[in-house]
Amino acid sequence: MNEIHWEPREPPLVRVENASLRLGGKEILSGVSLGVCRGEILTIIGPNGGGKTTLLRIMLGLLSPDQGQVTRAPGLRIGYMPQRITFDPVLPLNVRRFLTLSTPQPEPALLKVLEEVGAAALLNAPMQNLSGGELQRVLMARALLRDPDLLALDEPAQGVDVHGQVELFGLISKISHERGCAVVMVSHDLHLVMAATDRVLCLNRHICCTGSPGSVQANPAFIELFSPRALGNLAIYSHQHNHHHDPVTGKECAGKECQHD
Question: What is the pTM of this model?
Answer without folding.
Answer: 0.81
